[in-house]
């Protein structure tokens, strides 16, 4: 049986539901070509970070004011000069889009509204087919409420939607009081894609050196349980596309997300751990599973085990958690008292 596992993400057609997420892999032409050859359905270019823009701007300001007399003519001739860093990123994205064989999405990771709006608009003009806004904001002010943070993010995204004409996705963390409400609100203001969830950088401490350690933590297979639950809870509840992220390492993991209600998935960690060519195996496994189970297209089983369509809709809620504890007692509970 011939299967068609093409997918649609934010109105953009993908040959399959596997998107390579923003990472170092998508910042290099050589690895980008490898990703395409391995069969990825789409790709998110490595993010443009607000910190990059700020640091480059500060560096330029220092250069132009370090010696006012020497730079007086330069300042007069180029009062609004833009530093090469962020602008080079825009040129890089244009270059990738021009030679790409699969849909390309840009990514912006920022916190200030002015940066969101200005650079979202610029990225949207590079030819990408969609824009991902990575809402990575670490709360460090104890006087700022969760509601305040959410209102700020809603307002920023609304501003972005006013200045871009391409579909916009938001990539959020799981640390909201009610992620369902957050996703629903973004959906209502016009967001076309919901990526659940991004990965927060968490510093570590080396007790021997007594210093902070900074490194990137890869996701693990068990990390997929959280986005799996929210795919199942959100399926049929929002109009925008649902994209699962974190802990997806195999074709079997992708199938799980689709059964829960995801339109597509993003993968990164598995490519670092198992190589870019592992994409081929992942995609082949999806195709083989569909053939084995008699499915010709994704829509025949997408959302089949979501809360909306599941035989036991409470499987995704707290009731199931209690049931599991009651049926599978911990071995420690059966040990004799000492």
Automatic annotation (TrEMBL):
Key word Cell inner membrane present: no
- Stored SUPFAM superfamilies: FMN-linked oxidoreductases
Identify which cofactors the protein needs according to its UniProt entry.
FMN
Q: Which domain of life is it from?
A: Bacteria
Name a GO CC annotation attached to this entry.
Answer: cytoplasm
One short Pfam name that applies is: DHO_dh
* Record keyword Flavoprotein present: yes
Pathway named in the protein's UniProt entry? Pyrimidine metabolism; UMP biosynthesis via de novo pathway
Picking any one GO molecular function of the record gives: dihydroorotate dehydrogenase activity
Q: Which residues form the Dihydroorotate dehydrogenase catalytic domain?
A: 10-290
User: Which keywords does this chain's UniProt record carry?
Assistant: Flavoprotein, FMN, Oxidoreductase, Pyrimidine biosynthesis
Q: Which InterPro entries match?
A: Aldolase_TIM, DHO_dehydrogenase, Dihydroorotate_DH_1_2, Dihydroorotate_DH_cat
Q: Name one GO biological process term.
A: 'de novo' UMP biosynthetic process
Protein's name according to its UniProt entry: Dihydroorotate dehydrogenase 2
Q: Which organism does this record belong to?
A: Aminobacterium colombiense (strain DSM 12261 / ALA-1)
